[in-house]
Amino acid sequence: MVAVLALFSGRLEQALDIADALFATSAIEIHHSNAGNRLLICAIDRAGARFSPHLNRALEADSPVAVRAGHIWANAFLNGRLPEACLSDVISLPILAQQGAAQTMATAPHLAPDALVRLFDVDDPDVRKAAAAAIRVLHEPDSASISERVVAAFAASRAFPDNFGDLFHELERSLRLLPSTTIIACERAVEHAGVDLGDLSRAAAAISRDIVTVVLRRYRQGDAAMRVRCLDVVDKLADLGAYGLPEALQHER
């Protein structure tokens, strides 16, 4: 397959013929190899209609092959190269393929935010977790323009309860002005975690410091209405005995 890939730079038609024959006669496991994936990506990029049956076959696999095919689907989708014969809606993909697509789309949330945020609410928890990884790159320059929307969608989604720790970790270390929708995430996190925020035997206590830092920073950055909402969250954190709150408030004085 490496030799076939080399042909793409100078003998394209020959490379496409060999690749087509290779995919047509090989077991489905060919799509689980790195070389096979690179070959299909190149082939889809140059002759999408011809190679769409091979991609569709891999997407339908009942194995990790479908996850890797989901990466290829997302690559084509994000770059405007998805063949017409392939499903164009990420939600319509088989579950394993959705997982792979979500993993790839989460690395560049600014390219297809409409599709990405829908994955926060799918039934499969592995797909939701894969999509939620997008919050880890919201601090990158390319994602600045959609951070408000992604944070709001994530905070209201089914993915939030199992993955909100990652969001607050990223927001806590961000050097940017926090999205105004951060307050929605703070409110829901406090509601969801409850007394666990003050219980050092629970995982939520480790997140408590980040939540406290984020809500106090949002207070400093906000207008009067925002400050009222932030103070309401602080009051709830105090009632719950949230870990790290007393020390943080001392530094605010």
Compile the SSE list and pairings:
Layout: H1 2-7, H2 12-25, H3 34-46, H4 48-59, H5 64-78, H6 95-105, H7 113-118, H8 125-132, H9 147-155, H10 160-173, H11 182-193, H12 204-221, H13 224-239, H14 245-252
Short description:
With 253 residues, the protein is mainly α. It is built from 14 helices and no strands. The protein starts with a helix and ends with a helix.
What does this structure look like?
This protein has 253 residues and is mainly α. Helices cover 64% and strands 0% of the residues. It has helices spanning 2-7, 12-25, 34-46, 48-59, 64-78, 95-105, 113-118, 125-132, 147-155, 160-173, 182-193, 204-221, 224-239, 245-252. Helix 11 (182-193) runs antiparallel to helix 12 (204-221) and helix 11 (182-193) runs parallel beside helix 13.
Judged by helices, strands and strand pairing, the structural class is mainly alpha
Mean pLDDT: 91
Radius of gyration, CA atoms, in whole angstroms? 23 Å
User: How many β-strand runs?
Assistant: 0
Measured distance between first and last alpha carbons: 65 Å
Quaternary state, please?
A: single chain
Q: What gross morphology would you assign?
A: elongated
Reading the helices and strands in chain order gives HHHHHHHHHHHHHH
Number of distinct helices? 14
Low-pLDDT runs: none
Strand fraction equals under 5%
Task: Bin the helical content.
Answer: 55-70%
**Biggest sheet, open or closed, and with what strands and sense?**
none
